Model the fold of this input.
Amino acid sequence: MRINIINRIVIFLFLFLGLGILNTEVIQSKRFRELSNKNCIRLLPQKGSRGRILDRNGAIIVDNYLTFDVMVSSYGESEVNKTLSSVAKILDADFGGLKDKFRNSYIAPFMPTTIAKNIDIKKAIALEELKQDLDNIIIQPYPLRRYPYRKLACHAIGYLNEIDRWRLTKLASYGYKTKDIVGFGGIEEKYDYYLHQEEGGLSVEVDHRGRLVSVLGFKPPSNGKDIQLTLDLEIQKIAEESLNGRNGSVIIMEPYSGEIITLASSPSFDPSVFVKKSDSAVVSLLDDSSASLVNRASSGVYPAGSVFKLVVATAALETGKINLSTTFYCPGSTYIGKQEFSCWDTHNLQNLIGAITHSCNIFFYRTGLLVGAQNIYDYALKFGFSHPTAIDLPYEASGFVPSPLWKKVYRLKNWFDGDTANLAIGQGELLVSPLQITRMMAVFANRGTLVKPYIVKAIGGRDITSLRRKAITLSLKESTINYIRQGLRSVVSDAYGTAKVLSDLPVSVAGKTGTAQVGRGQPHGWFVGFFPFQEPKFVICIFLEHGGSGHASSIVAKQIIERMIQEKLI
Amino acid sequence: MRNINLSILIIALLIVCIGILSIYSSNYQKEGGLWQLLYKRQILWVILGLTLFIFISNFNYRRLWDMTYFLYAFVLFLLCLVFILGIVRLGAQRWLRVVWFNVQPSEIAKLVIVIFLAKYFSTKSVNDVSLPISKLGVFRALILPFLFVAIPVGLIIEQPDLGSSAMILLIFITMLYLGGVRLKYIFVFLLMIILCLPILWHFLRDYQKDRLLVFLNPNIDPLGAGYTVIQSKIAIGSGGFFGKGWLKGSQSQLHFLPESHTDFIFATFAEEWGFLGSSVLLLLYYLLVKQGITIACKTSDNFGRLLAFGISFMLGIQVFINIAMNLGLAPVVGLPLPLMSYGGSSIFVTFLSLGVLVNINKTRAIF
Done:
């Protein structure tokens, strides 16, 4: 009887084992197979380097330098200690500190543990030589961004940082992952797809100590494509130095093609603080009340002031409301409706050219009322206001042009003649970006085409300018352009012109100043112009935030042009 | 009768061959000539073991009856010697160095205790037919044999070798049951052991506690004490239905699996030969144990019957605990898989036991 029971127990035990084996080897087999593969296959990532950014002449603005990470395969305490002490000697580091670092970043015995980052090449070579004695040391090259000119053109370039949640949701379908380093702002963001490197790596089979047994596969890392900008490094330098820390922006553009030669915005920042990840520096940058990360040239919008008068003038000439013999009398102030509108001076009787030269408000109040708000609005849109210029930089602002319809719909108020008068001198709700103003001036420089500004010339050595959208011909009358150009030239050349400081330059400049009143603080100062007058090569736009007046901006323009001549850049 | 003897030999040889293949595979990638030699040494042990098997199978098992007390004393002597001269390996003092190989006395102790108990429980019925075991009082049926068992068990626990001592206790309980001791006493004994467990817990070494805790949940310490179990389960599980093929198991070839040629040789085998191979191996073991039980059932001599039962059960329990431990179904205790694991002592003792079995089968006919 007892024997039977023992017999059954034996059968039961073996059946139990059989079921155990069945469960592990057949039912759960897939899970264990995966675990087994993870166990012995390691990926050693190899970083490619991000594409460089070059200026129009091929000079390097941003490139990369190699740093090295030191890792130790974490098996066997005595072996690790031996390695750490040798590494400590080479790195001039404290053995205890290195050991703490090892303990803190230790994950598992099979994962190499990073013990030091950003080692320079000399030390990396010295460590590489240790490898013959210590087989558990791994040196991994790691390219980092280098900014040889520090803050130069920082807004056009942007900076690099770890991808944030918002960008990740946008970019996940393009293969971006968490912890990826991506561009923030500027070219780095807009062209990240071309600039970013493809991570390669080795898939290797390792043993329980994490030592390499055989290489299973290799995918070489591919470097990002170099991007050549239209920026001229020398002129960019001059522009940034001339801004001299004042808040504002300088744009210099080629009038026929729309190539941006200089795009400066101040205050600027040092993109390398994001590379070094010095937290305090990054936080102070993000908390900065003067918003240094904002690209004022394309993302900032401001009241246009007198520079907008050119749009009104064009509208008036094109619609035939005025011609050169039309004159208005400027007594210093005038009533429109019940409200008094003043000019900044008394200009007496003058025609369009005189009005542009002296930037007479009364003339443009009258002209504006003749032309009508709707026409001004239409022409402003024709000149590209109220829409982004579609420059290849991210976060471009579109600005705003008010219209009677808009006021009725959104403000539930009627449009009065006073509003038209305000719009005619570029005040009121009108908001423009310096880039839009630059493009408007280019229309007069190139005689009638609205260009599309761009900043990238070539990607990976391939010229992409031919792929750009074509400029729009505004089909303005030849005479309109001639009259306005005449006015613009006399702004500089006339003895009473608002930008006569520029008259003693060896190159003939034409342009328009603007002093935009703001609710609080000093008015903004504008100067936008082109030179040389006969065959324009550059459109220049200086914007000084709370700069006081257009005169201050004209002086900056003068400094820039002077130095360009000095350094034979014209 | 003859068929049984032959089938025991054939099954044993098949398992041994599987074992040698697995030992070869588990050390295939290891550097150093010593590792490569292991399978050759195992072949040597097997040849010596076979010689022993043939010798013992012609050695009348009744003589063991006469030698019982001498064997018992000899084992106690060896176990004491381990404390004085033993070699410390893997944190335990289990081995005795004899000339040029290491002996593990606890392996021998298992067999000797089976012989001892077989004799103890058969004596009564031979000498005094009127007093069957079932009529014995608690002292003679339980306490006295337990004291005899407790002495070597205590020595083995101290080595420390929890696996072997637990196994001897299991054998003791089985022998009590088969010897015909009253069920009441057996239940009392089991109850005592269960009540003693919390006290015993305090006497365990830290690593033993770890192992037991890890058995309950291997994930509490995946890289420490739970490591072996996890790696062993991964090895077995990743084998799948057909296995990865001989010399192709990544877990054992790349040394993720510790002790892959001794206690965890089943995992090495299962990874490379899959469910198919493991089932065949399990069947072979079952047949081996089954043959032993068949012999026992056919034997009318009480001593021979109990001996055959004890030996079969000892083999069965070892196989069960080892494979269950490989599968993570039992705590990790240092028990080899009979006939598979590398190691002279285990091979010798197993062949010795099988020799005794065969002899019982042969001699029985003469009665």
Summary: The mean pLDDT of chain A is 88. Chain A has 22 helices and 23 strands. The radius of gyration of chain A is 33 Å. The CA atoms of residues 72 and 258 of chain A lie 53 Å apart.
